[in-house]
Structure formats: C-alpha cells, structure tokens
C-alpha cells in the first residue's frame, strides 16, 4: 500500500472543499434608524467590501432595516446587483434574496444581475417568481456553470418539476449536461412523469442524435427511480451510432439495469496486497455491484473469491456486497468468515448473515455472541441471531447501504461504543497488573530501531507522509518488509513484533505483525493482528504477550496466538 500517495490525494481533495474564509459584512451602527434610503446606503458604502466575497451573513438584518423604504430600495439594490462594483453586486444580491414581494416585472432586472454574478444570490428571487421567463433566466445561467453547488442550482431544485423542460436543452451539450442532470437528480421523484416521453424520444431514430442523447442523460439522472421499465432501452446498446450506444450504456448503468451486471462484474476481482488498508479497486466495483440490490445475486458466485482474499478489507467488502445481494450461495463462506482473525471481517460477517436470514448459521452466531473478544462483535452476532429467530426471519438491509458512498464501506473504530479512558493508566490481565497510558510525546517519532547481531529492524513513522518497516543487515542492501507507519518494534525471543498505525483526516487504522527470522537472515510476517485504531502506547507483558492501547482499550496479543482479549482498567 502506498499510503503517502493516498493521503496526498486526500489532502488535495479536502483543500478543494474548504470554503473561502471571509468575515461577515458588518451591520453599520444606526442602520435601523437612518432617516432616508440614501443615508442608509451611505452607511453601507462604508462596510461593503471592494470585492465579491460570496459572503451572505448578516444580510437578513440589513434586509429588515432597508425594507421599510419599499420599492425604491428594492430598485436601488437591483441596480447595484447589476452594477460595476463587485462587492456591492454580491452584497445587494444577498440583501435581496429574502426581500419577498417579487413580481414577474422584476425578472429582467434579476436576470441582468445574475448575468453579472453567475450562480449568485439573486437566483433565489427568480425561483420565487418561477414564471417561464424566470425559470428560463435560471437555466440560462446554469448553462454557464459546470456544477450545481451555487445559488442557481439550488434555486432550480426548489422550482422543481416546472424547471425540467428548461433544463432539457442543456442536456444536449457536454458543457452544460452535468449541471442540468444534477439538478434533475436532485428534483428526483417530481421529475418522474417526464420518463415516458424521454424514453420515446431516446428510441425515435427520426430525432437528432444529440436530442436522443439528452433524453438518455435525463433518464440517467433519475437513477434507480427509473429502474423499472427501462428494458425498452436495451436495443440502443447495439446502436450503429457510437455516441448513442455509449450513452445508452451509461444510462442503463445509472438506472441499475441488471443486463449490465455481467460486464460490471467481469473486471471485479480481489487484487490488493495483504497490507493495503484501502483496497480501493475492490471497493469501487463492489459498491457498484451492490447498488443493484438483490439483482446482484445473479452474479453472486463471481464475488465469492473476495471472501478468500489475502486482504482483510477486500474480504470485508465482499461480505457486505453478498449480504446486500442476499446471495444465499455465499452463506457457508460467510459462516467460515466468523472465524476470521480480523474483528472487522467477523463483525460484517455476523451482520450479513442476518441480512441473509441464514438459519444454518445460528450455532455459529450464538458462539460468536458469547466468546468473541470484542463486545461490539458479540452484540452484532446476537442481533443477527435474534432477527433470524424472529417472525421476520432476517434483518433488513437499510436503503442507504445499497447506495453507500465509498468511504462508508470500511468498518473501523467508529463502529465501537465510546468508553471512558482508563484514568489510572493501570490495567489487569489474568492477574498480571501493568501500566499503559497514552503516549504524550509527539505522534511522529521518526525511527524505531531493534538491533540484532547481524542487523537491525528499522521502522519509520512520519504521519501522513508515510512510514515503513525494513530490515537493514550488517552487510547487503536494506529490505522493505511493510510500507506503513511503525509505532514500535518489540523483541519476542529471537523474533519480533511490530506495531503499526496511522490516524489522519478520518483514516484511523492500526495492526500488529509477528516477524520471524528466515534462514537467509531476512524476515517474514507470520501473523497479522488487526487492532481497533492507531496504537497510542505499547507494553510488554509476561509469557511473550503484549498490550496495545488504542480506542481507550488495552488489547492483549501474542505473536503465536493472535489477539487474546481486552485487559480490565483498574
């Protein structure tokens, strides 16, 4: 796993999402008492910034203070919203957004203001008016924008189904199609009555290709709402026109027509290395397949290899996808997953068996509910077993699990109940008492070194910039064992245990590995033990055992036996 590359991408994306920081335009003292409109505007001239900041805070207060001047105030603000002063254009639009009392005669002035500030505040009054001219002005403005995270996109969504005919022409050009389709997607159910005419148009070979493509794009925007009845579009997959054929495939994919499942699953296979904490390729394709719901059961057999993946995250994704698909053929393999050494796999296997209503798994679920070392896993197993024994016979798959965002599929410490930290820092395990408290030193410690006669194990930890575990022999080249941040390296007789982990921007992962010497002098990983979160402190216990503090719990483990349980706080 190249954690550096992943984190750099995550940071880059997050920076794009950070809103522009700007202070709210202040309400000048005396604005509620100034005797004339010109006097009030003079006060505002002192505080309106020179540039368009996008800021709209305090506008409601200013609106209230100016509304007493009636129509002249509104017209003055409309003029400034379309004027040459960038700061006033934004400020006037923000003040006018909650003005009210709009008339169709105001549309030309609002359109002029919107042309000066695309996606600006005056889109909201146009949505209130919602005449054909007003909606046309909004659609015209949307055609200049590449996304809908603005006031114009918001306004058209509020207009609802009446906006759809004005959006359709925008679907005919690549430049404006995305924004128009996104508005239709947000309008959702209210746009569904247009589906029959879009289907007719898409299938009519007498219509221009771009118009037919626009119809397919509109259908695609409805996503699963248009799922039933789109079988009629399947012949377009063989259209002689490549652009129409391509859009037909995109549309049938977006509405989740099961005819595309064989193609979707054809490239979906486990391939992540054992220490990849993300397994993004698997997650993308399995989320895609699972979004077909129970139809995905038709290709369920093709997903079974995920349950045998060397990567625990891929095993987890496979279990979730097969549970959502309710593929009964996966029951035995998921039962076996209840004995997986990774607690996340066991947690998800217990849940998927509940989704499958797997009566034959009840003895296994009962065993896990009473013996697993992690309370949350025991509770999940008990919950599924109870549901299977109920009249319903299963637990229902929540709708949001069928259409999950990619980031939601990985189970991590967020699945754990909050618990108080052990304030004493004193713990007990099988009558052995030991100290283990959060390390208050800097999180990124650089290198950890464990020396041997013929070389040394070196672990690096540079936080979001990455880390690794390597063997550096006295003679010869260094050998990288794992590419991940190393928290500590501990001697285990002639062998070693390495504790690894990283917490950064929502990513929180930790595990321990047993390392054994090879005859040639290098090292091999003999066991991987998944922890709950990034390790915060480590202690060596008796009898070759170790305790790792993470998620305010002390996890006790052994290189030969794996994770043994949780120590008790004294």
What's the gist of this structure?
The protein is of the alpha+beta class and 570 residues long. The chain is built from 22 helices and 15 strands.
What does this 3D model show about the protein?
By secondary structure, this protein is an alpha+beta fold. The protein has 3 domains: 24-255, Leucine-rich Repeat Variant (Alpha Horseshoe), CATH 1.25.10; 262-411, Leucine-rich Repeat Variant (Alpha Horseshoe); 426-569, Neuraminidase. It is built from 22 helices and 15 strands. It has helices spanning 3-17, 37-45, 59-66, 70-81, 86-96, 107-116, 123-129, 132-142, 151-159, 164-167, 174-187, 195-203, 209-221, 242-254, 261-266, 280-290, 312-325, 331-337, 343-356, 362-371, 375-389, 399-402; strands spanning 426-429, 432-435, 446-452, 455-461, 467-473, 479-482, 486-492, 495-504, 507-517, 523-530, 537-540, 545-550, 553-558, 562-566, 568-569. The strands form 4 sheets. It has a 4-stranded antiparallel beta sheet with strand order 3-4-5-6, with no helix packed on it. It has a 4-stranded antiparallel beta sheet with strand order 7-8-9-10, with no helix packed on it. It has a 4-stranded antiparallel beta sheet with strand order 11-12-13-14, with no helix packed on it. A hairpin with a 5-residue loop joins strand 4 and strand 5 (467-473). Helix 3 (59-66) packs across helix 5 (86-96), helix 11 runs parallel beside helix 13 and helix 18 packs antiparallel against helix 19 (343-356). The longest helix has 15 residues, at 3-17. The two termini are 38 Å apart. The relative contact order is 0.06.
């Amino acid at each position: 796993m190249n954690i550096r590359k992943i984190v750099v991408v995550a940071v880059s994306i997050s920076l794009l999402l950070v809103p522009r920081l700007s202070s709210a335009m202040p309400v000048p003292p005396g604005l509620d008492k100034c005797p004339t409109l010109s006097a009030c505007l003079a006060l505002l001239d002192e505080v309106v910034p020179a540039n368009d900041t996008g800021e709209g805070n305090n506008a409601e207060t200013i609106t209230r203070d100016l509304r007493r001047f009636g129509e002249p105030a509104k017209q003055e603000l409309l003029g400034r919203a379309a004027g040459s002063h960038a700061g006033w254009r934004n400020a006037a639009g923000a003040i006018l957004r909650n003005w009210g009392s709009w008339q169709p005669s105001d549309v030309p002035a609002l359109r002029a203001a919107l042309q000066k500030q695309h996606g600006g505040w005056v889109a909201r009054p146009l949505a209130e008016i919602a005449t054909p001219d007003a909606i046309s002005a909004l659609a015209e403005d949307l055609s200049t924008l590449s996304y809908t995270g603005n006031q114009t996109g918001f306004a058209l969504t509020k207009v609802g189904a009446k906006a759809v005919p004005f959006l359709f022409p925008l679907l005919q050009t690549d430049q404006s199609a995305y924004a128009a389709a996104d508005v239709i997607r947000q309008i959702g159910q209210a746009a569904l009555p247009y589906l029959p005419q879009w289907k007719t148009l898409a299938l009519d070979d007498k219509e221009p290709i771009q118009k037919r493509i626009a119809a397919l794009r509109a259908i695609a925007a409805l996503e699963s709402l248009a799922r039933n009845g789109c079988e009629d579009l399947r012949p377009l997959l063989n259209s002689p026109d490549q652009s129409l054929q391509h859009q037909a495939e995109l549309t049938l994919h977006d509405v989740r027509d099961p005819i595309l499942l064989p193609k979707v699953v054809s490239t979906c296979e486990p391939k992540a290395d054992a220490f990849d904490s993300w397994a993004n390729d698997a997650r993308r394709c399995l989320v895609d397949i699972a979004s077909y719901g129970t139809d995905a059961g038709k290709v369920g057999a093709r997903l079974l290899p995920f349950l045998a993946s060397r990567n625990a995250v891929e095993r987890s994704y496979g279990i979730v996808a097969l549970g959502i698909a309710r593929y009964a053929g996966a029951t035995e393999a998921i039962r076996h997953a209840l004995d997986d050494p990774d607690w996340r796999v066991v947690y998800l296997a217990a849940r998927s068996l509940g989704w499958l209503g797997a009566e034959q798994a009840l003895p296994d679920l009962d065993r896990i509910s009473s013996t697993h070392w992690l309370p949350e896993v025991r509770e999940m197993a008990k919950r599924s077993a109870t549901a299977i024994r109920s009249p319903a016979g299963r637990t229902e798959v929540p709708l949001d699990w069928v259409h999950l965002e990619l980031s939601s599929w990985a189970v991590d410490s967020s699945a754990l109940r909050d618990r108080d930290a052990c304030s004493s820092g004193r713990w007990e395990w099988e009558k052995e008492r030991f100290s283990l408290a959060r390390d208050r030193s800097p999180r990124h410690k650089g290198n950890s070194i464990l020396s041997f006669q013929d070389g040394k194990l070196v672990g690096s930890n540079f936080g979001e910039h990455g880390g690794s575990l390597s063997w550096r022999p006295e003679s010869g080249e260094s050998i990288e064992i794992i590419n991940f941040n190393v928290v500590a390296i501990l001697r285990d007789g002639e062998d070693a245990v390495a504790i690894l982990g990283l917490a950064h921007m929502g990513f929180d992962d930790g595990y321990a590995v047993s390392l054994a010497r090879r005859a040639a002098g290098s090292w091999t990983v003999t066991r991987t033990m998944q922890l709950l979160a990034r390790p915060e402190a480590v202690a060596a216990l008796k009898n070759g055992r170790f305790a790792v503090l993470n998620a305010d719990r002390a996890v006790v483990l052994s290189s030969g036996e794996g994770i043994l349980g949780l120590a008790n706080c004294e």
